[in-house]
Amino acid sequence: MKLRRLATALRQEDLPTLAGEAAWRVIGSIRRSRFKITVPGDACPVHFHPIGYFRSQKQLVSEEARESLLGYADAILRGEFPLLGYGRPHLGTNPDWQCDWVSGKRWPLKDSTRMCLVRHDGSDVKAPWELSRLQWSPVVAKAYVLTGNDRYREALRGLLTDWIVRNPICQGVNWTVAMEAAMRAISLCLTIDLLWPFTKEENPWLDLMTGSLWQHLRFIEAHNEFSFLVRSNHYLSNLAGLTTLSAYLRGPGQQRRLRKYARAVQREILLQTYADGGDSEASTGYHVLVAQLGLHSFIVQQRSGCTIAPAFEARLRGMFAWMATLADDAGKLPHLGDCDNGRVELLPDDIAQAAQPACQRHSLRTGSLYALASHLLQLPAGAGEGAQKPISLLRESGLAVLRAGDASVVFSAMPNGLGGKGSHTHCDKLSVVLRLGVDEVFCDSGSRCYTRSANRRNLDRSTQAHNTLVIDGADQNRIPSGPQMLFQCGNEAAVSDITITQGDEISARASHAGYARLGIGHQRTVQLSGECLLLIDEVSGAAQHALDLRFVLGPEWRASSEVTSGETVSCVIAGPRRVTLVCETESRLALSILPTEISREYGAALAATCILIHTTACLPARLRTRVRWD
After folding, report:
1. Which of 30-44, 128-142, 359-373, 552-566 has the lowest mean pLDDT?
2. Do 550 and 468 contact (CB within 8 A), yes or no?
3. pLDDT per residue over 555-614, tens digit each?
4. Which residues are 392's β-sheet partners?
5. How many C-alpha atoms does 272 have within 13 Å on its Cβ side?
6. Cα pseudo-dihedral 344, 348, 349, 352, rounded to 10
7. Which of 108, 113, 176, 588 is surrounded by the most beta carbons within 10 Å?
8. Measured in whole angstroms, how far is the alpha carbon of residue 3 from the centre of its chain?
C-alpha cells in the first residue's frame, strides 16, 4: 500500500514538493525518536493557568440545556457513555480504554508505533479513540459548576486519573495519532478550566494533569500530521490543540509557542477552505468539525490576547454563513461525504440528542454551534439570509440550494476533496437532497462505519448509495477494492461549475466527467417550482449502456409502485406528506423498490427504502423525473 501511495505521489507532484516531503519525513523521524527517548522521564517545566474559556458563554445556557447536561453527566457517573451512534454503552467507572466495546476486540498496551489500527476483524479503532477524546469530561465539569455538587468533581478526578495511569505515554492505541492527542488535550484543558480553583489537597492531582498535558504537547509536536502532499482536518486539529495547550500551560517558551501556533491555525483555515466558506474535504460533516476547530481556536486566542487577523475572522464568518445556507429550519445540515460525528467540544444540541432514540438523532444538528458563533463573531442578522432566497450558490464548494415554498433541494457538484486527494469524498456528483420543511424525502446514505466493515464503508461512498445516475454499474470515481484502501479513491469525476437560470422556474445545471473513461458524459438539470421538482438527466455517448437512477428515501418515507415498466414508470411515496414520482424516457424502464440502510450518525444504521429505475438505452439518452407533493 505504501508503495502504491508513493507511485501515485510521484505521478502527481512536482520535484520541489516531493523533495520537501522527503526532507520533512526525515525530520519527523528524528523528532519522534528523540521524543521517545527523552520525554517520558522529563520533568514538567510548566504550570496550568486558566484562561476563562467559558466566561462569555454563560448566558447561552437555557433551562432545557441545563437539564440535558445534568442528565448526560449523571449517565457518565453511572458508567454509561453516550458515544457516536451506539447509544449509551455501560463501560463502568473504570472503562477499558483500549477496547472497542461494540465488537469486544481490544488493542494491547504496547509500543504505539508498532500498533496495527485497522485489523479487518470487525473492530473499529474509532470506538476507543472516541472514548479517549474525553469530550464527556467538560460536560461533567459543567455539571459541577451548575450544581456545586462535589460528586461530579470527585468522579472526574477518578476517571481522569485512571486514564493517565492506564495509558502511559507512547503505549497503547490512544497514543498512535496526533489528532487524538490534540482533541483529548483540549478536553482536559477545558475541564481543568471549569474546575478551577483547586484546594491545597487537590494540588497533587492538578500536578498530575499538568504533567500529562505537557506530555500531550510534546507528543503532538513530535508526531504532527503536516505534509507537503496533502493536509486535512488532522493537521488543523494538531495546530488547534497546540494553540490551546500553549495558552493554558505557562512556562519557558510558552508565549513563543502560543504566537507561533495561533498564526499557524489562522493560516491553515484559509488554506483548507474555499473563498465561499466551504471546507475543501467535500463533506458537510468535516466542514462542521473544521468550523468548530476554527471557532474554538478563535476563543482561545481571544482569551489569550493573541492578534487575530481580519482575514481569519472573515473566513470563520463565511464558514458559518455556509452552514446557514445549507441548514434546514431546524438547523440540520444534509449528510454529504463522510461524517463521523467529529466535534471539538459537546454543545447543547449534541448533549440533548444523547437521550433521544436513534431514529430521532442527527449528527449534523448545528443550531447550538451556529448560535455560539453568532454570539462570539457578532454575525450580522443577515448571515443566514440565503435561506430566504429562491436559490443560493456556493460556487467553489460546488453546491446549490433551490427553494420554493417550504420545499428545498440541495444540488451537489462538489469537487473531489482536497484537490482530488481527499479521503472523505463520496461518489455523489449531481446527487440531490429533497426536503419538505425539515423532512428529507430524498436523503444521502450517510456513513455507517469506516473500518469496521470494508464492504459497508465502500458501499456508503459508492455512486449507488446516492441520488444520482449510475452507468454500467460503475462508480464515478474508482473505489479501490483492497481493505487497506478505505480512505482512497480515484479522481476521475471532475465536475463543471453549477450554472443558474432564474425566470418563471429556478434551475441549476452541472455535469461531471466520471464516466469519460467509458466515453460517456452525464449532465443534470434541477428545476424547482411551486410543488414540483423536475430532474433532467442527459447522457451523451454512443452504443447501448445500462442506466440506473436511484432515489434513497428518508426512514420516515415508504414507496409503493404504480407503474413498474414501460417508457413511463411511477410510484407513490407516503410519509409526512403524499409525494408522487414519475420518470420517463424513450427506452423501456423498470421500476423497483428495494430495502436499504442509511445513517444519520456514525455507527448507527436506520432501515430505509431505495427507488431504483433501470433502463438499457442507446446513447445519447434523456431521462425526465418529476416529483410532486401535496
Report:
1. 30-44
2. yes
3. 999 999 999 999 999 999 999 999 999 999 999 999 999 999 999 999 999 999 999 999
4. 401
5. 29
6. 120
7. 176
8. 29
Give me the pLDDT at residue 1, please.
47
**Nearest alpha carbon to residue 559 among 526, 605, 608, 607:** 608
The amino acid occupying position 329 is D
How many C-beta atoms lie closer than 10 Å to residue 93's C-beta? 12
C-alpha cell at 112: 504505539
SS3 state of residue 150: helix
Cell 444538528: give the residue.
Answer: 365
Distance CA(297)–CA(278), nearest Å, equals 18
Q: How confident is the model at residue 56 (pLDDT cuts 50, 70, 90)?
A: low
Looking at the DSSP assignment, which residues form a beta bridge with residue 540?
521
Cis status, amide bond into 620, omega within 30 of 0:
yes
Q: Tell me the per-residue pLDDT of 423-471, one tens digit each, with 9 for 90 and over.
A: 899 999 999 999 999 999 999 999 999 999 999 999 999 999 999 999 9
pTM of the predicted model as reported, rounded to 2 decimal places? 0.95
Give every CB contact of residue 136 below 8 A, 6+ residues apart in sequence: 72, 76, 81, 82, 346
Helix (H) or strand (E) holding 499: strand 499-502
* Cβ atoms within 10 Å, residue 207: 14
* DSSP codes joined into one string, 579-613: EEEEEEEEEEEEEEEEEEEE-SSTT--EEEEEEEE
Q: What is the residue type of 62?
A: S
**pLDDT tier at 382 (50, 70, 90 boundaries)?**
very low
3-state secondary structure of 572: strand
* pLDDT value, residue 384: 43
End-to-end CA distance of the chain: 52
Per-position b or e across 298-332, b if 16+ CB within 10 A of its CB: bbbbebbebeeeeebbebbbbbbbbbbbbbbeebb
Tell me the average pLDDT across 343-354.
94
The pLDDT > 90 percentage for the chain reads: 83
Enter the DSSP assignment of 169.
T
Take residue 123 and report the three cell numbers written for it: 473492530
Q: Are 80 and 90 in contact (CB under 8 A)?
A: yes
Tell me the angle at which helices 137-147 and 150-166 cross, rounded to the nearest 10 degrees.
160
β partners of residue 250:
47
Residue 509 in grid coordinates: 445545471
Cell of 602: 456514525
Q: In 3D, which of 327, 324, 330, 363 has the Cα closest to residue 347?
A: 363
Across 46-52, average pLDDT: 97
Nearest CA-CA partner of 298 in 379, 209, 214: 379
